[in-house]
Amino acid sequence: ESNKPRWRRVLLKVSGEALAGDQAQNIDPKITMAIAREVAAVTRLGIEVALVVGGGNIFRGASWAGSSGLDRSSADYIGMLATVMNAIFLQATMESIGIPTRVQTAFRMSEVAEPYIRRRAIRHLEKGRVVIFAAGTGNPFFTTDTAASLRCAEINAEVVLKATNVDGVFDDDPKRNPQARLLDTVTYQDVITKDLSVMDLTAVTLCQENNIPVVVFNLNKPGNIEKAIKGERVGTLIGA
Ligand code: UDP
Q1: Of the residues 13, 22, 37, 103, which has the maximum number of CB atoms within 10 A of its CB?
Q2: ipTM associated with this complex
Q3: What UniProt keywords are attached to this protein's entry (predicted)?
Q4: Into how many domains does the chain fold?
Q5: What range defines the domain where residue 26 resides?
Q6: Ligand 1 nearest atom to the CA of residue 80, by list position
Q7: Is residue 135 part of a domain?
Q8: Residue 136 Cβ contacting ligand 1 at under 6 Å
Q9: If phi over 0 gives left and psi between -120 and 50 gives alpha, with beta otherwise, what is residue 197?
Q10: pTM for this one?
Q11: How far is the CA of 56 from the centre of ligand 1 (A)?
Protein backbone atom coordinates (compact mmCIF):
# COMPACT_ATOMS: atom_id res chain seq x y z
CA GLU A 1 0.00 0.00 0.00
CA SER A 2 3.00 2.29 0.25
CA ASN A 3 2.50 3.56 -3.30
CA LYS A 4 -1.01 4.66 -2.53
CA PRO A 5 -1.20 8.48 -2.39
CA ARG A 6 -1.90 9.78 1.08
CA TRP A 7 -4.30 12.52 0.07
CA ARG A 8 -7.41 12.44 -2.11
CA ARG A 9 -8.02 16.19 -2.26
CA VAL A 10 -5.43 18.86 -1.56
CA LEU A 11 -5.23 22.62 -1.44
CA LEU A 12 -1.97 23.82 -2.94
CA LYS A 13 -1.00 27.37 -1.99
CA VAL A 14 1.47 29.00 -4.36
CA SER A 15 2.78 32.36 -3.24
CA GLY A 16 3.26 35.12 -5.75
CA GLU A 17 6.91 35.39 -4.84
CA ALA A 18 7.46 31.75 -5.74
CA LEU A 19 6.11 32.44 -9.24
CA ALA A 20 8.63 35.20 -9.81
CA GLY A 21 11.67 33.01 -9.27
CA ASP A 22 14.80 35.06 -9.87
CA GLN A 23 13.36 36.79 -12.92
CA ALA A 24 13.12 40.54 -13.20
CA GLN A 25 9.62 40.09 -14.60
CA ASN A 26 6.82 39.28 -12.22
CA ILE A 27 6.31 35.75 -13.47
CA ASP A 28 8.83 33.15 -14.61
CA PRO A 29 7.12 30.94 -17.21
CA LYS A 30 9.55 28.13 -16.42
CA ILE A 31 8.15 28.05 -12.89
CA THR A 32 4.50 28.10 -13.93
CA MET A 33 5.24 25.30 -16.41
CA ALA A 34 7.00 23.25 -13.74
CA ILE A 35 3.98 23.67 -11.47
CA ALA A 36 1.62 22.69 -14.28
CA ARG A 37 3.63 19.54 -15.11
CA GLU A 38 3.77 18.35 -11.51
CA VAL A 39 0.09 19.04 -10.95
CA ALA A 40 -0.69 17.17 -14.19
CA ALA A 41 1.23 14.14 -12.92
CA VAL A 42 -0.82 13.89 -9.73
CA THR A 43 -4.22 14.60 -11.27
CA ARG A 44 -3.50 11.59 -13.50
CA LEU A 45 -3.33 9.52 -10.30
CA GLY A 46 -6.80 10.71 -9.42
CA ILE A 47 -5.79 13.21 -6.72
CA GLU A 48 -8.03 16.28 -6.73
CA VAL A 49 -6.06 19.53 -6.72
CA ALA A 50 -7.31 23.00 -5.84
CA LEU A 51 -4.95 25.96 -5.85
CA VAL A 52 -4.86 29.28 -4.10
CA VAL A 53 -2.46 31.69 -5.69
CA GLY A 54 -0.88 34.74 -4.03
CA GLY A 55 -0.04 38.08 -5.54
CA GLY A 56 3.08 39.27 -3.74
CA ASN A 57 5.13 39.17 -6.96
CA ILE A 58 2.97 42.00 -8.29
CA PHE A 59 1.47 43.91 -5.40
CA ARG A 60 1.32 43.57 -1.63
CA GLY A 61 -1.35 45.72 -0.03
CA ALA A 62 0.13 46.19 3.41
CA SER A 63 3.54 47.41 2.24
CA TRP A 64 2.06 49.88 -0.25
CA ALA A 65 -0.40 51.20 2.30
CA GLY A 66 2.47 51.72 4.72
CA SER A 67 4.89 53.41 2.36
CA SER A 68 2.63 55.47 0.12
CA GLY A 69 -0.20 56.54 2.37
CA LEU A 70 -2.67 54.68 0.12
CA ASP A 71 -5.54 53.52 2.27
CA ARG A 72 -5.22 49.89 3.25
CA SER A 73 -8.50 48.65 1.79
CA SER A 74 -7.78 50.13 -1.64
CA ALA A 75 -4.27 48.72 -1.55
CA ASP A 76 -5.60 45.29 -0.61
CA TYR A 77 -8.10 45.31 -3.48
CA ILE A 78 -5.22 45.97 -5.85
CA GLY A 79 -3.38 43.06 -4.20
CA MET A 80 -6.38 40.79 -4.75
CA LEU A 81 -6.54 41.82 -8.41
CA ALA A 82 -2.87 40.86 -8.67
CA THR A 83 -3.73 37.31 -7.61
CA VAL A 84 -6.24 37.13 -10.47
CA MET A 85 -3.46 37.91 -12.97
CA ASN A 86 -1.36 35.09 -11.56
CA ALA A 87 -4.36 32.75 -11.60
CA ILE A 88 -5.10 33.40 -15.26
CA PHE A 89 -1.45 32.92 -16.15
CA LEU A 90 -1.40 29.60 -14.32
CA GLN A 91 -4.70 28.51 -15.87
CA ALA A 92 -3.45 29.23 -19.38
CA THR A 93 -0.24 27.33 -18.64
CA MET A 94 -2.11 24.31 -17.25
CA GLU A 95 -4.50 24.23 -20.17
CA SER A 96 -1.61 24.47 -22.64
CA ILE A 97 -0.55 21.01 -21.47
CA GLY A 98 -4.08 19.64 -21.40
CA ILE A 99 -5.18 20.03 -17.76
CA PRO A 100 -8.76 21.29 -17.63
CA THR A 101 -8.68 24.21 -15.19
CA ARG A 102 -11.23 26.63 -13.80
CA VAL A 103 -10.52 29.93 -12.09
CA GLN A 104 -13.00 31.07 -9.44
CA THR A 105 -12.71 34.57 -8.03
CA ALA A 106 -13.79 35.68 -4.57
CA PHE A 107 -15.47 38.74 -6.10
CA ARG A 108 -17.22 38.81 -9.43
CA MET A 109 -15.29 39.33 -12.66
CA SER A 110 -17.62 37.18 -14.70
CA GLU A 111 -16.12 37.97 -18.09
CA VAL A 112 -12.80 36.67 -16.87
CA ALA A 113 -13.53 33.81 -14.50
CA GLU A 114 -16.30 32.06 -12.60
CA PRO A 115 -17.40 33.50 -9.29
CA TYR A 116 -16.53 31.37 -6.28
CA ILE A 117 -19.32 28.87 -5.76
CA ARG A 118 -18.40 26.19 -3.27
CA ARG A 119 -20.49 23.36 -4.64
CA ARG A 120 -19.46 24.13 -8.16
CA ALA A 121 -15.80 24.10 -7.18
CA ILE A 122 -16.26 20.68 -5.61
CA ARG A 123 -18.04 19.43 -8.73
CA HIS A 124 -15.13 20.59 -10.90
CA LEU A 125 -12.70 18.72 -8.66
CA GLU A 126 -14.80 15.57 -8.81
CA LYS A 127 -14.66 15.77 -12.59
CA GLY A 128 -10.87 15.91 -12.47
CA ARG A 129 -10.53 19.62 -13.17
CA VAL A 130 -8.04 21.76 -11.33
CA VAL A 131 -9.66 24.72 -9.61
CA ILE A 132 -7.69 27.90 -8.98
CA PHE A 133 -9.14 30.19 -6.33
CA ALA A 134 -8.23 33.81 -7.00
CA ALA A 135 -8.76 37.16 -5.30
CA GLY A 136 -7.96 35.71 -1.90
CA THR A 137 -10.87 35.78 0.52
CA GLY A 138 -12.37 38.79 -1.27
CA ASN A 139 -11.78 40.90 1.83
CA PRO A 140 -9.11 43.45 2.57
CA PHE A 141 -6.96 42.88 5.68
CA PHE A 142 -6.60 39.18 4.89
CA THR A 143 -3.93 37.21 3.06
CA THR A 144 -3.93 34.46 0.51
CA ASP A 145 -2.61 32.10 3.21
CA THR A 146 -5.84 32.68 5.06
CA ALA A 147 -7.72 32.19 1.79
CA ALA A 148 -5.92 28.84 1.43
CA SER A 149 -6.95 27.70 4.92
CA LEU A 150 -10.51 28.91 4.38
CA ARG A 151 -11.00 27.28 0.98
CA CYS A 152 -9.35 24.10 2.23
CA ALA A 153 -11.89 23.86 5.04
CA GLU A 154 -14.80 24.77 2.78
CA ILE A 155 -14.13 22.19 0.07
CA ASN A 156 -13.13 19.49 2.58
CA ALA A 157 -9.61 19.22 1.28
CA GLU A 158 -7.38 17.21 3.60
CA VAL A 159 -4.26 19.35 3.72
CA VAL A 160 -2.85 22.76 2.88
CA LEU A 161 0.39 22.39 0.91
CA LYS A 162 2.25 25.67 1.10
CA ALA A 163 4.79 26.00 -1.70
CA THR A 164 7.42 28.60 -0.87
CA ASN A 165 11.00 29.61 -1.63
CA VAL A 166 12.33 28.03 1.57
CA ASP A 167 12.77 24.38 2.54
CA GLY A 168 10.24 24.47 5.35
CA VAL A 169 9.94 25.76 8.89
CA PHE A 170 13.18 26.50 10.75
CA ASP A 171 13.67 26.86 14.50
CA ASP A 172 15.12 30.32 13.84
CA ASP A 173 15.42 32.73 10.91
CA PRO A 174 17.90 30.99 8.56
CA LYS A 175 18.83 34.33 6.96
CA ARG A 176 20.08 35.71 10.28
CA ASN A 177 21.16 32.52 12.03
CA PRO A 178 23.20 30.05 9.94
CA GLN A 179 22.75 27.41 12.69
CA ALA A 180 18.96 27.45 12.23
CA ARG A 181 17.63 23.90 11.85
CA LEU A 182 14.91 22.73 9.46
CA LEU A 183 12.11 21.08 11.43
CA ASP A 184 10.44 17.84 10.26
CA THR A 185 7.31 18.58 12.23
CA VAL A 186 6.11 21.47 14.34
CA THR A 187 2.90 22.09 16.26
CA TYR A 188 0.42 24.85 15.47
CA GLN A 189 1.03 26.16 18.97
CA ASP A 190 4.77 26.49 18.41
CA VAL A 191 4.23 28.27 15.11
CA ILE A 192 1.96 30.71 16.92
CA THR A 193 3.82 31.28 20.17
CA LYS A 194 7.37 31.17 18.80
CA ASP A 195 6.30 33.39 15.91
CA LEU A 196 8.01 31.14 13.34
CA SER A 197 6.61 33.39 10.60
CA VAL A 198 5.76 30.75 8.02
CA MET A 199 2.16 31.76 7.71
CA ASP A 200 0.16 34.56 9.22
CA LEU A 201 -1.55 33.74 12.49
CA THR A 202 -5.09 33.99 11.12
CA ALA A 203 -4.25 31.27 8.61
CA VAL A 204 -2.54 29.02 11.18
CA THR A 205 -5.36 29.41 13.69
CA LEU A 206 -7.98 28.51 11.11
CA CYS A 207 -6.07 25.32 10.28
CA GLN A 208 -5.61 24.51 13.95
CA GLU A 209 -9.31 24.93 14.73
CA ASN A 210 -10.27 22.66 11.86
CA ASN A 211 -7.47 20.09 12.28
CA ILE A 212 -6.06 20.81 8.86
CA PRO A 213 -2.40 19.78 8.56
CA VAL A 214 -0.12 22.15 6.69
CA VAL A 215 2.98 21.11 4.75
CA VAL A 216 5.49 23.89 4.05
CA PHE A 217 7.96 23.01 1.31
CA ASN A 218 10.30 24.42 -1.32
CA LEU A 219 8.76 24.80 -4.75
CA ASN A 220 12.12 25.31 -6.45
CA LYS A 221 13.29 21.71 -5.98
CA PRO A 222 12.07 19.66 -8.93
CA GLY A 223 9.62 16.97 -7.92
CA ASN A 224 8.70 18.58 -4.60
CA ILE A 225 5.17 19.58 -5.58
CA GLU A 226 4.45 16.08 -6.79
CA LYS A 227 5.94 14.62 -3.60
CA ALA A 228 3.95 16.95 -1.38
CA ILE A 229 0.70 16.23 -3.21
CA LYS A 230 1.31 12.48 -3.01
CA GLY A 231 1.94 12.83 0.73
CA GLU A 232 5.59 11.85 0.59
CA ARG A 233 7.98 13.31 3.16
CA VAL A 234 8.99 16.81 2.16
CA GLY A 235 9.51 20.08 4.02
CA THR A 236 7.84 20.59 7.40
CA LEU A 237 4.52 19.21 8.61
CA ILE A 238 2.55 21.55 10.87
CA GLY A 239 0.01 19.70 13.01
CA ALA A 240 -1.41 19.23 16.49
N1 UDP B 1 -5.24 40.25 -0.20
C2 UDP B 1 -6.34 40.70 0.50
N3 UDP B 1 -7.25 39.80 0.97
C4 UDP B 1 -7.10 38.45 0.80
C5 UDP B 1 -5.96 38.00 0.11
C6 UDP B 1 -5.05 38.91 -0.39
O7 UDP B 1 -6.52 41.90 0.68
O8 UDP B 1 -7.97 37.68 1.24
C9 UDP B 1 -4.30 41.23 -0.82
C10 UDP B 1 -3.27 41.77 0.15
O11 UDP B 1 -3.05 43.13 -0.17
C12 UDP B 1 -2.02 40.98 -0.19
C13 UDP B 1 -2.17 40.79 -1.68
O14 UDP B 1 -3.57 40.63 -1.87
O15 UDP B 1 -0.86 41.67 0.13
C16 UDP B 1 -1.42 39.62 -2.26
O17 UDP B 1 -1.64 38.45 -1.51
P18 UDP B 1 -0.51 37.81 -0.57
O19 UDP B 1 0.36 38.87 0.00
O20 UDP B 1 -1.17 36.88 0.39
O21 UDP B 1 0.30 36.97 -1.65
P22 UDP B 1 1.61 36.04 -1.46
O23 UDP B 1 2.35 36.49 -0.23
O24 UDP B 1 1.11 34.65 -1.31
O25 UDP B 1 2.34 36.22 -2.73
Answers
A1: 13
A2: 0.98
A3: ATP-binding, Kinase, Nucleotide-binding, Pyrimidine biosynthesis, Transferase
A4: 1
A5: 9-239
A6: 14
A7: yes
A8: yes
A9: left
A10: 0.96
A11: 7
